[in-house]
Amino acid sequence: MSVLVVGSIGLDTVKTPIAEHADLLGGSASYASVGASFFTDVNLVGIVGEDFPQAHVDFFGSRKIDLEGLEIVPGKTFRWSGEYHVDLNTRDTRSIALNVFEQFNPTLPPSYNNTPVVLLANIAPTLQSRVLDQMVQPKFVIADTMDLWINIAKDDLLALLKRVDMLILNDGEARQLTGENSLIKAGARIRELGPRYVAIKKGEHGCLLFGENEFFSCAAYPLEEIHDPTGAGDTFAGGLAGYLASQDHGHVTPESLRRAVVFGSVLASYNVEAFSLERLRTLTPEDIKKRYHSFKTMSHFEVA
Ligand code: AMP
Question: Mean pLDDT across the chain, nearest whole number?
Answer without folding.
Answer: 96
